[in-house]
Predict the structure.
Amino acid sequence: MKNSIRQKMKLLRKSLNHKDKDLLDQSILNKIKKDQDFINAKTVAFYIPMSQEINLLPLYSENKIFLVPRMDGDHMVFIKYDPTMILIPSKFGVLEPNKQEKAYDEIIDYMLIPALAIDLDMHRIGYGKAYYDQYILKQRPHKIVGVIYPFQEIKTFNHEAHDQRLDGYIKGEL
């Protein structure tokens, strides 16, 4: 079931025209900026977008510590983000900080997570490797928020034991 949802959402996301994607991304950014938990957060984890993912990079500011994920072996760590840092493609094609950058090891205040789908029970479908789930299980951030386009909100799907619940999600609007 998850694989068919993944494929469907990738196709729907790919079919978004540039204008609608930009409007939806801006809608999501505006909602995040008004979220009191985001406003109060000292550390914010987000991601470097790939293949039609929601672009959260405009959130970056120097008055917060922003973090991005990097794969270290088979687990995910977060690294302090700097827009001038050198990013290299991972084995999955995701841009990430190089191995010389030190992992951030404190609890994250506010984590924004990409998703292919999120259900009404606050479970997400990602790309299928469970890296975010593993990270959350090991070192749960204070607030975990998924970001999606409207068509990525689904009623339910069959959850697996390792699936970690989000604290909420933000959905773009046109």
Q: What stands out?
A: The longest helix spans residues 18-34.
